[in-house]
Amino acid sequence: MTLGEKIASERRKLNYTQEQLAQLLGVSRQSVSKWESDLAYPETEKLIQLGKLFDCSMDYLLREEITEKDYSSPPPPAPQDHVFLTLRERKSNRLICGLPLYHIARNANGFFAIGIRARGVFAIGLQARGICSLGLLSMGYLSFGLLSLGLLSFGNFSLGLIAIGAVALGIFAIGAVALGILSVGA
Known about the structure:
About 25% of the residues lie in helices and about 45% in strands. It is an alpha/beta fold. The strands form two sheets. Strands 1, 4, 5, 6 and 7 form a five-stranded mixed β-sheet that branches. The termini are far apart.
């Protein structure tokens, strides 16, 4: 079976018209028609979308000698030797001031950022930097964390204009060990 025959067959199994499939993929109906008649081939991005939509592998779509979908289960994941879980990247297509609305990844940059190293307006991570940040090492205007640096910082070790924590250093410091112009502590 050719790629075009497979696309047409899988489309019919899902009871989609060429127009509906084209709309799902963001292409014209004529493009789908050309693909199905083997006059043109879809771009790589469209092939990936087709694979997800049809629940099949790229091998099935692209290799003519493979005529049936392989439904065998994927191999079990390799054992994790490290402490951190693997983060699957998620990113919003919607942008706010040039930043994605949300970004979840190891090195996340977004309006809302979550990751090992997160940077954004609202950042959560091991190393977080943003207007409002939460993390082991956090830096921002409003900062929460084990080691925090910011205008208003809360944490075990905090440094800022207003610092609240076990060890606090700032203009106004509150903590067990506090150092500042106005300080409250043991």
